[in-house]
Amino acid sequence: MRRLRRVKILATLGPASQDVAVLKRLLEAGTDVFRINMSHTSHEALHERVHTIRALEQEFGRGIGILVDLQGPKLRVGRFKDGGTQLTSGDHFILDSDPELGDSHRVHLPHPEILAALAPGHTILIDDGKLRLHVVEADAGRAVAVVDVGGRVSDRKGVSLPDTEIKVSAMTPKDRSDLDAALHVGVDWIAVSFVQRADDIAEVKKIVRGRASVLAKIEKPQAIARLEEIMEISDALMVARGDLGVEMPVEKVPGLQKRITRMARKLGKPVVVATQMLESMITSPVPTRAEVSDVATAVFEGADAVMLSAESAAGQYPVEAVMTMNRIAEEVETDPVYRSVINAQRSEPEATGADAIAVAARDVAETLDLKAVIAWTSSGSTALRIARERPQPPVLALTPNRDTARRLSLVWGVHAVLTKDASDLDDMARRACKFANREGFSHEGDRVIIVAGVPFGTPGATNMLRIAFTGAEK
Asked: For 8-72+170-333, CATH number?
């Protein structure tokens, strides 16, 4: 199960990938983390899928990450008398608190928090941005809007508000129930939707209490405006390009993807690039050339992971999509330009012992052409800090914590192995070398560099480097 690439692959589970045989093939094809979308998953199905993945984890002998994606608030218009109506550009259209069925002049908006927040000049997008309106008059009970881009609107279509900050939590009662269920079955990552501010992440982390890592999905303009504070409190980020491209001009999304990726790397936070990466493979066994370039761009940028959504959840070729993404990543990472691009994005280290050790480990490993950087880590912070440096040799993380091994499956270049903690310096070096040989990173007589904290088992105490020769395993 050792990967020949650094970037990780997330595959979303769904009807096309719920069979055990398909899950095994997805793992063999290159999946590192499975995503479970709670918009389409019951608690019973969640339990079954987690149980199946944990059984496969035993079979494959490697920690497999599980990410649960909370649905977040779903903002929708109400229903119409005839199931829908046609809106024409230039028309006035009212969204109000009246629960009566809508018509060509008005419709119920069952979200008083939106009506309270709308103001003249705000844009209203309906049905993934297919219809665009702007508000000309607003009060607590209704908003009068002018149709800028018309079309047919029907029952329960989604509403997006790029200019409006809504005074509502990112976590609905359904999300709270789903979060409790996810924590109960022991998932590794929680993805939070509809993030507008750092408090949205803080609310989830207060409930999670370290039982999982929390990932912020960046999909709203309000999150872009507070990007630094959201990044600071989150354990990881996701560039959710689908929703981001609805609420912001699509031409801005590539630049934002690059900005978020680089900021996350600077902070040492894993970053996932998601949405429509191999969209055509939902119905085609091969991707378009543009999609291949899109995946390659994310890999060149140094993203920690790339994600498949409908391609693996509901597509006709889920395994082929993972295989294709795997091949693209392997090819990019062997391209002569790749290393120069990755190196050019390195940030200056902070004035801490952990940063100094991580930078030194990278420099020594690359100068001496060592076969691996081996990190003894309990919390995962040492491996994360080394991964931030994007060293040329692979990173082997040795941890006594099963949860840490699973969470590190999302992190660039890290191959995590579960083992008991080292008892002393000699044991640390001996077993590090043993695992480097066993996992295929080195052979007898090769050199590796070992990073650890003394005393052992103390989180955040990274303070030691050691170069070691790997010998025959005993």
From this structure: 3.20.20.60
Nearest C-alpha neighbor of 190 from the set 170, 208, 173, 209: 208
- Fold designation for 353-469: Pyruvate Kinase; Chain: A, domain 1 (3.40.1380)
Do residues 49 and 20 touch, judged by C-beta distance below 8 A?
A: no
Active-site option among 3, 74, 76, 266: 76
Tokens of 314: 């509901």
Annotated active-site residue 261? The verdict is no
What values do phi and psi take at 462, rounded to 5?
-65, 115
Tell me if residue 385 is catalytic. no
Closest listed residue to residue 459, CA positions, set 354, 389, 349, 381: 381
- Give the model confidence (pLDDT) of 300-357 as tens digits: 999 999 999 999 999 999 999 999 999 999 999 999 999 999 999 888 888 888 889 9
Which one of the listed residues 6, 8, 35, 362 is annotated catalytic? 35
pLDDT in tens, 425-473: 999 999 999 999 999 999 999 999 999 987 776 666 788 899 999 975 4
Burial class (CB within 10 angstroms; exposed 0-12, middle 13-18, buried 19+) of 161: buried
Q: Which of 164, 275, 382, 462 is catalytic?
A: 275
Of 106, 217, 385, 388, the active-site residue reads 217
List, edge to edge, every strand of the sheet that includes 92-96: 106-108, 92-96, 142-149, 131-138, 123-126, 159-160
76 noted as active-site residue: yes
Domain residue extents for the chain: 8-72+170-333, 84-160, 353-469
Which CATH number among 3.40.1350.10, 2.40.33.10, 2.60.40.60, 2.40.50.180 corresponds to the domain 84-160? Answer: 2.40.33.10
Is 346 assigned a catalytic role? Answer: no
